[in-house]
Amino acid sequence: MHEFDTLDGALLIDKPAGPTSHDVVDAIRRQFQIKKVGHCGTLDPNATGLLLIVVGRGTKLSEKLMSSDKIYEGTIKFGETTDSYDADGELVASLPVPPTTLAELNELAAGFVGDQMQMPPMVSAIKKGGVPLYKLARKGIEVARDPRLIHVYNFRFSDYQEPIGRFRVACTKGTYVRSLAHDLGEKLGCGAHLATLRRVVSGKFDVANAIQFEEVLKLSNAEFEKRVIPFLKLV
Q: Rounded to two decimals, what is the model's pTM?
């Protein structure tokens, strides 16, 4: 049995809007001089919330940790469609929003619960012929994508003030929440895009127990070690 180091495990980070998931990994690697650092499940730059960082031999568990279910909260803006299905993209269509109640939105959202084949957006990190789709999208190239099987456990709106709806969704890994936003807008007949997104739960981990990214970088090495969830608690 290998003895595990205090730096073999995982760290719960509350990522702000702005940095990429890779930026967070890089900063931690440099700040604490750790050779092996990875993350479990990319958050888009403007998305916030729980980013699971694995360090040392904890990186061996990244596939396992990445495969767990997720819960997200966020807002969807109706009436505007973008090429990336979120607020970062270019506006491609703008339509008036039909009069809609919170109950009607929830009825539509309930139609997404269960197994479904979801088409990944062109602006995504999925690779086609070794090239990430978003690089092709930037050149104006659209290619055929394979739909993926996903499962949505729950999708509900808690508030709707036209044109913004506030929602919470529980789903399997690999679910594009911005695709849900886009498809919901199509069903409503006016288009929509994901305005904001926050990951609040990943597997058994909750963002309530995470440390702000800016705060992590202020920790001493000893304080950092204390924040690492030991390897054996992850398996």
A: 0.94
